[in-house]
Amino acid sequence: MGRGKIEIKRIENTTNRQVTFCKRRNGLLKKAYELSVLCDAEVALIVFSSRGRLYEYSNNNIKTTIERYKKASSDSANTTSVIEINAQEIEMENESVYLRTKIAEIERMEQANMVPGQEMNAIHVLASRNFFPPNMLEGGNSYSHPDKKLHLGYESIILCILV
């Protein structure tokens, strides 16, 4: 017959709590010993009772084991920092690519949907570079050709290059 599960909470009765502490402490020390022998592991166990008494087990010098632990935990903290820094550099690069794409998209939208004073400025710039015939700007908001017409509206600009 197996034992039933117990609820893990503080035992209120001091006598029962002390008895349980002694039994579990001895079991923990025994497991530490078994782990060190069976697995050839370096084990150090430190237990302080509620009264402040110290109980310890070590299959090596406990101070040497603690120093080894400190060195290992500081090395792993540095490794974690490097991993985190690399992840941040990658995240920043992805964000940079995203922002450059957004900027290019906004610039394309601005070029396609110029606001009213910029339309004519853009046409004048293009005309000065000989993209349009000079008389095109003289007719106001539209340029007529026998079979083609260019309308300058607020929503979009359709450019026809006539040769």
Automatic annotation (TrEMBL):
One of its GO terms (molecular function) is protein dimerization activity. It comes from Punica granatum (Pomegranate). One of its GO terms (cellular component) is nucleus. Residues 1-61 form the MADS-box domain. Pfam families: SRF-TF. This is MADS-box domain-containing protein. Its main location: nucleus. InterPro entries: MADS-box/MEF2_TF, MEF2-like_N, TF_MADSbox, TF_MADSbox_sf. It is found in: Nucleus. One of its GO terms (biological process) is positive regulation of transcription by RNA polymerase II. Keywords: DNA-binding, Nucleus, Transcription, Transcription regulation.
